[in-house]
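Chapter review: from sequence to fold.
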Amino acid sequence: IATIFCNTYSNAEETTFQLGGDKRDGTREVVPIGDGDFIVSGWSGETQVGNDGEAWIFRVNRSGELVWSKTFANDIGTGRGSQIGGHTIDTDGTILAALEEFRTKGKMTPGTTGRQTILRLDADSGEVLSRHIIGGAGTDVIDVIIPLQAGGYVLAGETTSPIGKSYDGWVLQVDDNFEEVWWHNFGAMGYERFNGLVPTSDGGYIAAGRTTNSYGRFLGWVVKMDANGDTQWEQRVRPDLHGSTVRGIAELEDGGYVFAGWSENPASEGNARDLLIGQLEARGNLVWD
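The token string follows.
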């Protein structure tokens, strides 16, 4: 069951509501929309494919009442499920949602490498207005969609394209028709992924995620880019930890950045993870965590 918490800070009221059935449901992202409603996305286990669910996106009001609900099955013949990895409200008020149709585990043959599609949905009804396939011949995953004021979008996640080997952190800019403007892979032969990306005051971007490159375990990872996606600096977060992941990052008004994620603990400690927050200088050096 998907559980949503809604806080009204002005009077400290809190509302909790649950949606879904008796199968495994989950949410990845919650975005507020006009009149106090929310657009929520993730997956629904009501129509389960193996251990996977179906991509699920819905609009709900502050009282937990559904306005509309849509699911999207995996239609590429891999025998697996799907999910919405992330969504946003576009400048025209429509919804952009990243639909991931999972690949067949252990197989990278044509037709089984997964598919990443950007759906444009009507905010009032949830009806699909357009579909745009993103990526190449590998497995492509979008977690972040950023509409640009000048038109087009910047997207971030992970990819094995163009050669179908080794997951790289992935950032690309597309135009209004979702045609590629520029594309950058980040990483080497490890496993890299960006879970967060935000614009910065200098016109560039800063990405948050994790990497295994040269470490043999996941480490939190922050990469600063210019307006064209070229790397200005990168920083591994606390390499002395057993492992870590950065999920979100924000720029501070007086310079530098704050980040949030988790740290992995040794099995002997009994608890698998601790929450991790910290601050970086403008050039990426750790201030505190």
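Two observations follow directly from the output. The CA atoms of residues 192 and 211 lie 4 Å apart. DSSP finds no helices and 22 strands in the chain.
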